[in-house]
Write a structure and sequence with these properties.
The protein is an alpha/beta fold and 526 residues long. The chain contains 15 helices and 15 strands.
Length: 526
């Protein structure tokens, strides 16, 4: 194959993957997106050569779907796109090596389990960036993936990769004039069976309601405050006034919960001093006027420690005191102690810096990142107050793309997912739209309704089947009032989390061990 032609196939792969990704309406293209890379593997003999072809495809896919990161960090976005593209090449090079050594069947198996292992690691290590987890691609089509309540997004990843393999094999069979019946049947089964399962699940949930009738309502507030000005103390009083006025417009006797977005309370203060903060006086006056209502809000806070009990993320000041800064959520209710949850899943390079990159702190700070990083909670926690039917999961922004982590809130008793976010950093780009769509996946996995408050939009109410019930568009001050029902059902996914990833990870390690053994035997090292 000529080099220009093989490069053309790589470019085609990147374009197909981009064209399939939310918020594009061309989602079915994902079932063909990897086929060009499988085709190239038939004609290239060197791993290095194959790596560069795959890297080109991954770079096009990453850059075209997540370019909007540039609006919040320019150099950081370039680094993230290149790094993610490079890491995505590892499973493909592994597939190529196994295929050349052990044949097509083992090669395809390796591709599935290696990619699954890559995604699982990318969900859990310190440089986690799972935005392009393959199972996310179906976020705009909840009717296709009702079975995510059993598998989470890992099931969607397997569906994508196996379907690509079967479609590619079908094309090869047609090209070589081979018998098509078996491979065609497999393609149809793999494509259609998940859809039929999803439609059955959807029908089942329509026939059997697991939600308690809604006797209470929730108000979700979207203040539409410029994210680049919201931390200016000179406008803090005006910002709080907007939030309070929007909240009170349609409060009635059935209103039990009000949700404000991430860092809505933006004047950083000690967690022990929030009630005394003069800027927040109107907030507590609002809570006292409505004693039956709980308020969940994003807030910037600090916490101090002695040297004996300092957290791993705390930074020491000149006076010897250790301090953590938090991107947090707070539960406020009249005559009740404040409850805080500190964001646990932090954005790498912006809110946190991996331990192995601490030496690059000054570089990250120069390009919009954080040298010390935020403190964090060790695990999820829920917000519940007396005489309130809602036990809420205070999910902060980036955390909403982690299925297993969100499921942990539900395992602890959350009957509602509240997502508070500030997507305005990215501007009116696909970023905030993709983020909204991913929230629909969490609703299906946990069978919980979602109340999503976004500073500049898009705020929404999402039902437990992933349907967007009400929404407020981008770049306007608004609110949503809705009688949200609650559910106590615990799904298979909530119980067992990313079980498919873990099984695939074990298989990947076994396959790596076996191939290492074969290499060592060939070289007569054993």
């Amino acid at each position: 194959m000529k080099k220009s032609i093989s490069i053309g196939w790589s470019i085609l792969a990147g374009i197909l993957l981009f064209a399939a990704w939310p918020v594009s309406p061309l989602t079915p293209l994902i079932f063909f997106g990897f086929c060009p890379l499988l085709f190239i593997a038939e004609f290239i003999n060197k791993k290095t050569n194959y790596f560069w072809h795959v890297f080109l495809a991954m770079l096009i896919w990453n850059a075209s779907t997540t370019w909007w990161i540039w609006n919040s960090t320019d150099v950081g976005s370039v680094a993230a796109i290149i790094a993610n593209s490079l890491m995505m090449c590892i499973p493909w090079v592994g597939f190529f090596a196994v295929k050349k050594r052990s044949g097509k069947t083992f090669g395809y198996t390796a591709l599935v389990v290696f990619w699954m292992l890559f995604e699982y690691i990318h969900l859990n290590w310190q440089l986690s960036w799972p935005w392009l987890t393959l199972g996310n691609v179906f976020a705009a089509h909840p009717e296709w993936i009702q079975w995510y309540e059993f598998t989470g997004v890992s099931g969607g990843t397997i569906w994508v990769i196996v379907t690509n393999i079967l479609i590619y094999e079908l094309v090869v069979a047609v090209r070589n004039k081979q018998q098509l019946s078996k491979i065609l049947l497999r393609c149809l089964v793999i494509l259609i069976f998940p859809l039929l399962t999803s439609f059955y699940n959807l029908f089942y949930y329509l026939q059997h309601t697991f939600n308690k009738p809604a006797t209470s309502n929730i108000i979700v507030v979207q203040p539409n405050i410029d994210p680049f000005q919201k931390f200016d103390a000179s406008t803090a009083a005006q910002q709080i006034d907007i939030l309070v006025k929007l909240s009170e417009q349609q409060i009635d006797s059935a209103t039990k919960l009000v949700v404000w977005p991430e860092t809505a309370m933006s004047v950083a203060d000690w967690q022990s001093n929030v009630r005394e903060n003069i800027f927040y006086k109107p907030v507590f006056e609002f809570a006292n006027r409505h004693p039956d209502i709980s308020l969940i809000s994003g807030i910037e806070t600090f916490k101090s420690y002695s040297s004996a009990n300092a957290s791993p993320t705390a930074r020491q000041r000149e006076d010897g005191v250790f301090v953590d800064a938090f991107n947090a959520a707070v539960l406020i209710k009249s005559n009740q102690n404040l409850e805080f949850y500190n964001k646990s899943k932090l954005v790498p390079g912006v809110e946190s810096l991996p331990t192995f990159l601490k030496f690059m702190g000054p570089v990250f700070e120069k390009f919009g990142g954080s040298t010390g990083g935020y403190g964090r909670s060790d695990s999820s926690s829920i917000f519940h107050s007396e005489n309130n039917p809602y036990s809420a999961a205070p999910i902060i922004c980036y955390e909403s793309i982690y299925g297993e982590y969100v499921a942990s809130y539900v395992a602890k008793g959350a009957n509602l997912l509240t997502i508070i976010t500030n997507d305005g950093w990215w501007g009116n780009t696909p970023g905030h739209k993709q983020h909204l769509e991913y929230a629909r996946l969490r609703a299906i996995e946990t069978r919980r309704w979602v109340a999503r408050s976004a500073n500049t939009g898009i705020s929404a109410i999402i039902d437990d089947k992933g349907n967007i019930i009400q929404t407020q568009g981008w770049n306007k001050a608004a609110f949503i009032k809705y009688p949200v029902p609650i559910s106590e059902e615990i799904t298979f996914y909530v119980r067992f989390g990313d079980w498919l990833y873990k099984i695939a990870g074990v298989l990947a390690v076994l396959m790596l061990g076996w191939n290492l053994f074969l290499v060592m035997r060939e070289k007569k090292l054993i």
